[in-house]
Amino acid sequence: MSTPSKPVIGILGGSGLYQIDGLKDVTWKKVSSPFGEPSDELCFGTLEGHQVVFLPRHGRGHRVSPSDINYRANIDVLKRSGVTDLLSLSAVGSLREDLPPGTFVVTDQFIDRTFAREKSFFTTGMVAHVSMAKPVCSRLGDALVAACEGLGVTVKRGGTYLVMEGPQFSTLAESRMYRSWGCDVIGMTNMPEAKLAREAEICYATVAMVTDFDCWHPDHDAVTVDQVVSVLLGNAGKARGLVKNVVPLLGAHQGPCAKGCQNALDHALITSPEARDSALLEKLSAVAGRVLRK
Ligand SMILES: CSC[C@H]1O[C@H](OP(=O)(O)O)[C@H](O)[C@@H]1O
Ligand SMILES: Nc1ncnc2[nH]cnc12
């Protein structure tokens, strides 16, 4: 009988999170992708004996703008590195009075308003349609909530994250419209990240760390980068505590995820074998090797 492989926990650090404290045996390594340049080298290490792979999604020094992030390359190199569970740590604006700066939201839905990004690994020559009905792995979501509660951080379970293109912040009319749609928080990065993680059969969940009230709140000035950064300094400390608490919870998991994320491609491929593009199949070797090699 083969030994079940252990989880490998990936962490995508957002604004303010360009390294992970407390990792042991740390090495930064360049991993190449057929989808182009990822945001940075990957940081490999262990935390409490569990394997962790960290990638700052804007690169160290916050070099890469949300629209210019190569989301496909980022997810591809994480998959190539064996990542099974991916945590996204993201700064967001709040669209609700009862989610003030400092609150953490473990989101469970997204609305994708981005329009200038490559959104799929599966293009002409190998088409696939995965389900995004439940974009977040609830096993990871449960672990994030438990880790926040363990730290005494105010956390809301569930919420809709509106993903805008940016890099400019929203107009007042947009911010009001997103509120009228019932969205809870707003940011610029979690799509197509979550879609690509699903295509790559990686479990994905986000902790959205509120830094501001965007521009809709009559009693608060419109968001600025200075404001985001100053709240982030507080949030980043909590985020590091969160990582320390959540990694052992996920690392203890055995076997495949019962939520089905790791089988997302089982019923998704539509291009008939004779119509498939061999060059694209080669590029998809990490993301979809499990189903394409059959
Ligand atoms: C620095 S404010 C805007 C910036 O912050 C968020 O980044 P991330 O999601 O990577 O934490 C937001 O999405 C924007 O990219
Ligand atoms: N108000 C906001 N809009 C978009 N992205 C953000 N990241 C942090 N605050 C934000």
Automatic annotation (TrEMBL):
One of its GO terms (biological process) is L-methionine salvage from methylthioadenosine. It catalyses: S-methyl-5'-thioadenosine + phosphate = 5-(methylsulfanyl)-alpha-D-ribose 1-phosphate + adenine. One of its GO terms (cellular component) is cytosol. The record marks 170, 225 as: Important for substrate specificity. Homohexamer. Dimer of a homotrimer. Belongs to the PNP/MTAP phosphorylase family. MTAP subfamily. This is S-methyl-5'-thioadenosine phosphorylase. It comes from Pyxidicoccus fallax.
